[in-house]
Amino acid sequence: MEPDNIIIRGAKQHNLKDIDVTIPRNKMVVLTGVSGSGKSSLAFNTLYAEGQRRYVESLSSYARQFLGQMEKPKVDYIGGLSPAIAIEQKAISKNPRSTVGTVTDVMDYLRVLFARAGVAHCYNCGREVQSQSPQSIADQLASLPPATRFQLLAPVVRERKGTHQDIIERARRDGYVRARVDGVPVDLDSKIKLAKTKKHTIELIVDRLVTPDPSSDKRKKAAKDERRNFLKRLVDSVETTLRAGDGILIADLGDGGEQIMSEHNACPDCNISFPELTPQLFSFNSPLGMCPDCHGLGTQMTIDPDLIIQDPSVSLLDGALRWYGVLRKKKKGWSMRQLQGVADHYGADMETAWQDLPKKFKDVLLYGSGDERIRMTYESEWDEGTWSGESERTVKGIIQTIERRFRQTKSDGAKRWYSQFMSQKPCPTCEGARLRAEARAVTVGGSCLSEVGELTIAEVYGWIQSLHNNSSKKNPTKENAVKEPRAETWSYATDELSYSAPDSLTPEQLEIADEVLKEIGDRLRFMLNVGLHYLTLDRPAASLSGGEGQRIRLASQIGCGLVGVLYILDEPSIGLHSRDNRSLLDTLLQLRDMGNTVLVVEHDAETMRSADWLIDLGPGAGILGGEVVAAGSPEDVAANSKSLTGQYLSGKLEVVAPNGRKRREPSNGWLSLVGARLHNLKTLESRFPLGVMTCITGVSGSGKSSLVAETLFPALARALHNAQRPPGPYDRMEGVEHLDKVINITQSPIGRTPRSNPATYVKLFGHIRNIFASMPEAKTRGYKPGRFSFNVKDGRCEGCRGHGQKKIEMHFLADLWVMCQDCKGSRYNRETLDIRFKGKNISEVLGMDVREALDFFANHTKIARILQTLHDVGLDYVKLGQSATTLSGGEAQRVKLAKELGRIQTGKTLYILDEPTTGLHFADIQRLLDVLHRLVDAGNTVVIIEHNLDVIKTADWIIDLGPEGGDAGGEIIAQGPPESITKEKVSYTGKFLRKVFSSVRIQMPNGNPNPCFLR
Ligand SMILES: [Zn+2]
Ligand SMILES: [Zn+2]
Ligand SMILES: [Zn+2]
Asked: Rounded to two decimals, what is the model's pTM?
């Protein structure tokens, strides 16, 4: 019988304190606790690792040799474990060809749909192209209304110059009597004279027919015979016509017009033949389908004038163009003389600001003078005197020059220099559609594949539904059989479809496409249910956030329909607005109801309340954590006074603005960004108050990142630090003079090898090395501080070159790091380890976590001050020498934040953070808020993109974007202090804030909101 529980005994991985945990199977279980309490150690490093290990053990020894030995997690016993699948938050794919459509398989199915039910068109004239057998052509003609007169023509000359006597002669010989020449019927017996210099068209008339009329006054038998004779003659004539017309047949219906039919997949008008419709034809990864000019990338690197113009408000001499730089000092140079010549020619002044120069002059500088010749004077100083001359010639523009040099240079450095003037523009051939012309001209329901790719998931879903419209009328029972769970969760998105409704498919097309349509519909529905309605199918996978990637993986798992699996998820609520959280939870419950165990590591209160079972780890972080504080139903945990999580759940504790402070008035001036219009931004006029904390809110896809991370930050970085990365388009920025620095505290790693660690990153390690070098024994031996660096030869273990680990290159998998046997992971050689400070060697110090180190270095002001910043951002449990590769995105972000706290504050810095609450428990969020508000108290400005209501409610100012994601978003729908946002009817953020403000507020009497921070 299947066990009811997964039983873990004696878990000791990392900081887990030899604990026993019971996880009910086929339930949704949430694992929570403060950062560093051991959640990941239990979920990923114990349960998932053991699941993987057992899986590998079960493989053949042949397969195992490629996978290597997997380390057994430190646990005594695990019973009732199912196969485990982890759905983590890492980038899905870095391949520029991967898109939302390809990673979800929706594109694969759409390609099959287009190959089966697609209607091909000639890309030149737009005419429908079909390949038809003689039989099907005959069938079509036979189905004309009764008593229709028509004639069959075979085109033998199409729009070609000449007298064509040979062709006419042969037609006569073959027994044809009539033809159409240039549209006029003629007898072939008569003399036909064609002008040699004109283009002519000759079509032979093969047969004239009338469809039988059964209603006419005939006996049944006679009517039947007539029909049979007609069909026989028709098929014969169609075959003859196609033979004579080289596969093309024209049916002239008299007043009813003409039908051109082709035996080949070819446009009879343009004489272009088309390949057979196969799924490969619609793949930009396949040579059969890709646009030949951009090889399926959809973009080409082109030179961008905006990148050449550095600052339009200054003159050429002062460096308006990046290409020339500041010219004032180079007055004697060659390019300066040439430039002066052009300026003189167009009467332009080199002292005038670029934006005020005559357009003609600016165009010549950028694009060249074309045929216009410009007089140049030369003057060169030689040792023997001056030489001068003049010439008249055309000048090349900067753009042509860069283009040529980029093509010709062999040096990577030079290529990089030139490429900074280039930006990616849609490929002019396919206009970014990535596919070759033949594939782009195939439509289903009136749309071509790339048009479907530009739609959002919600829109594609609507499109798929409307393809069915025909059948739903004709075959309602079949339509009703399609199950559509929880339709209400995506209805808000499909209501607002902006494209025109497509033509529905014919019953025949529906029949062949039915299975495919169902597969596509299912996949789209799963994605709608996890709140991804706003993503377009052609969105590059590499541009998705970790949370979006995780939810896509989640959606595809449901599509797999596996049963009896243990799913482990890491904070799936990240990046999700409160509005979309509910449908995500329903998806998790659906996964459970399919017969799986769902284990979620999560800090979100709503997720915890939806759980069947809640496990709270703690009580603290690192060595202070690793125990089960409470376990049971959410109600049980909320009632448990020992559980910190429980106290927040029950409302006894609450995240509050530090010290219950009042909101700051935005009285220190404003930074305004006018006309931002990247992606879906609707030419925004946004104003950021300075010297306060501002939250940028809005549902996923509403434009928060486009505004802050892709426009505001690079624009400020360019203005303040001369950064190169071009910002999204905007008109102007005002108020920069109030700032002297902008810092984007991202979640990217602090280093990419095990050599990087928090101690070096926050500049702590240098101070520690100095202490070791000052020890008497070190002085005697002559050890300098460098000796204690694992990057330097003298002191480190040479077996691993100071890594402490050795890299094993795996042929099929990611590189594997294993502990160095020479130094047992200590990184140093024995002599270096002999030196001790307060009884500890350098390796042991690096092994301390922040909390231990704070006590250890309490008397060393400089070190303690830096450690304090790491403590303040909630990283007590992180080890000083912990390799950067093991830190999560949220942890890396907080290490960077700690470094900022350690700097001398100028009070004029603008900090930008994107969802800093990732991975944080209520208690950690409180601590983070304390730190952020401390930065603001020093006069700085903090701008945060955030979904977490606990953070939003403590902000001084909110800018809410929306109202929806994608095209239906990109506007500022509300701004002001949080209280004013709650009054906005259209704001989802306001709606959820209202609930937060109306709930009971309990504050700790001493002003310190949370007892766990008292040291
Ligand atoms: Zn054509
Ligand atoms: Zn192209
Ligand atoms: Zn070593």
From this structure: 0.69
